[in-house]
Amino acid sequence: MPSKREAMKEEALALVGCGYIYGATGWVCTPKRIEQQAKQYPQYAETIEKYGPKWLGKRCFDCAQLTRTVARRVGVSMPSGATSQWRDERLWSEKDVIDTLPDEAGLFLFTMRDGRMVHTGVSVGGRKEVDARGTRYGVVERDIDKTTFTHWARLAIDYNAPADAPNPEPKPDTRRTLRRGMSGEDVADLQRKLIALGYDVGSYGADGIFGAKTQEAVRKFQRDNGLAVDGIVGRATWAKLDELEPGDEEEPPQAERLILTGDALRVLEKAVAGARMDGSRVSMLLEKFEFDALAKAVKDETAREIE
Q1: How far apart are CA 108 and CA 128, in angstroms?
Q2: Is the whole model's pTM more than 0.85, yes or no?
Q3: 46-93 pLDDT per residue, tens
Q4: How far apart are CA 214 and CA 232, in angstroms?
Q5: What domains, with CATH codes, occur in the chain?
């Protein structure tokens, strides 16, 4: 019987080569699934329709559903979104920034942008990790120092125990029961979950105020999922939201370097040579055709480096 650490590593590596589709939970990709996901998540429809067909016949995940699957292998139940995973203090015994990451398998990795976790993966040892990178890439194994991860977290379990050994009882869920008239960050979290699932909470979005539109969205969500339809977000509604919440965006694009040669480099050298200081600002003068050529070169080279 493998240890929990070994079991998580095995699970993660076994999923390499699977596909990525936003909102996918491990199901096998079919044309109907592609159509369904594009309709449910219109903001990602173009990407899903363009790259989804390459994953036909393969199991598909988004980033947070991949890590959720790995954790489930050792008896740990995680919420679906990367931000929700990171914020669920019941899950973790230790958290820190990526610079302090120990070289061991079974640690969960997160990318923070603007205070939210927008991507997640899991370490497999040897300074490598597995993540559902994006619709073009699917589930991949990579060197950690070539990713965008900014934080890591360790599960509150005994990593050396057998994979099927019971885990410590999780801390109780301390989230409030929410109802109309309440406000706060937990209300905003509720609204973000509902929006991600396609429910309308009103024109102000996740404003942290539980008003009539949010109550209506909660009632509709409860009705769609066989829950008591009371418009109140208690333990059962929170649990179902955690279960169904889609994962987060694909790995944020990040160009590692920019290489300009030939005409583009000469145009840039000319601009720098003719630069003028205006207080704390620097002005560079270029003919329009020179600027267009330089802008195109930067765009093309950046796109190439990202890929």
Answers
A1: 12
A2: no
A3: 999 999 999 999 999 999 999 999 999 999 999 888 988 998 888 999
A4: 10
A5: 4-155 (3.90.1720.10), 185-233 (no CATH), 262-306 (no CATH)
